[in-house]
Amino acid sequence: MTRRLAGAALAVLSIAISVAAQDFSKVEVKAEKLADTVWMLTGSGGNIGVSAGEDAVFLVDDQYAPLTERIRAAIGAISPMPVKFVLNTHWHSDHTGGNENLGKAGAVIVAHDNVRKRMNSEQFIEFMRLNTKRQPKSSLPVVTFSSDTTFHLNGEEIRAFHVPRAHTDGDVIVHFAKSDVIHMGDVLWNGMYPFIDTSSGGTADGVIAAADRALALSTDRTKIIPGHGPLASRSDLLAYREMLAAVSGRIKRMIAEGRNLEEIAASKVTEDFDGKWGKGFIAPHKFAEMIAMNLLRNAP
User: Which of 46, 127, 219, 265 is the most exposed place for a label (fewest CB within 10 A)?
Assistant: First the structure.
């Protein structure tokens, strides 16, 4: 496993562990410039998008609360301005953990309607057997939307649009139109099998449909920020979409044949993809089981 894939796997695994028990002391937040006003920050948790220019500092996601000061320091090397807006791509804590710190400092938290709903109530992530508590008021999005919204900042339109029932039921994709950068959130896991949170309304078909929407916006020059993994290209996103469609299609046929979960998980249905995608957080047999459970739960 490469260092970046290992880091992404550790970040997701840590969702199932108390944040207080984690050691963030060695986490380094790094910035990668993607365009004149857009950067990607990596650390522990979901990748962060940053737009910084003459108007404001705008963030897409904010990782974990103990990393806020390091995130601020990384941003400080880019711009002297404080963070004015934070847009959450979905509700999971490795993408929203810094909300409370940044919100108390004056940032406006924005997300899809379902993100606020899930953060404002107890949740259960079935795949990880993880109960999550209702989040404090100061961490909740104060501006929500049902379909799409646009920010006019730093010389460009930053368009956020909802992709239904993808990784969760509250995912948004963010398009920095002038900069030709797309932030996918956890709709895209670059170089590894994805986690699809069925218990939060996610579906394999929704992820594929979301990938199609991003592909329609992209060219070979587009830079794509995944929720986890290294910076991606359009060809990376297309390969990911084709892998998901192939595995999902095979499992649909096996379900139609009457195969049970154990048989599907043991069938090596992903074997021809494992070399590229099977070295991350989710082992191949668990990925096959997850897709099968997802399809069974969401069957007509």
Answer: 219
The whole-model pTM stands at 0.92
User: Domain segments of the chain: what residues?
Assistant: 3-297
Is the pLDDT score of 300 beyond 90? no
CATH superfamily of 3-297: Ribonuclease Z/Hydroxyacylglutathione hydrolase-like (3.60.15.10)
Residue 89's Cβ-side half-sphere holds a number of Cα atoms within 13 Å equal to 29
Torsion of CA 188, 193, 198, 200, to 10 degrees: -40
- Using CA atoms, how far residue 140 sits from 54, 67, 76, 118, 242, in Å, is 27, 18, 24, 10, 35
Residue 232 DSSP one-character state: B
Residue 21: what pLDDT?
Answer: 54
- 300 vs 172, higher pLDDT: 172
pLDDT grade for 3, boundaries at 50, 70 and 90: very low
User: Tokens at residue 299, please?
Assistant: 């069957």
What end-to-end distance do the CA atoms of the chain give, in Å?
A: 38
Question: Considering just the CA atoms, what is the radius of gyration of the chain in Å?
Answer: 18
Sign of the dihedral defined by the CA atoms of residues 107, 111, 117, 122, in that order = negative
| Cα 246–Cα 90–Cα 153 angle in degrees, nearest 5 | 110
SS3 of residue 3 by DSSP? helix
Vertex 109, ends 48 and 136: CA angle to 5°? 105
> Given CA atoms 127, 129, 134, 135 in this order, what sign does their dihedral have?
negative
Half-sphere exposure at residue 79, Cβ-oriented, CA atoms within 13 angstroms: 22
Pick the more confident residue, 127 or 268: 268
